[in-house]
Amino acid sequence: MKQRIGNFTVKEILPQIYSIGGEGVFRYLLVGEHHALLFDTGVGFSNLRECIEEITKLPLYIVN
Question: How far is Cα 43 from Cα 34, in angstroms, rounded to an integer?
Answer without folding.
Answer: 27
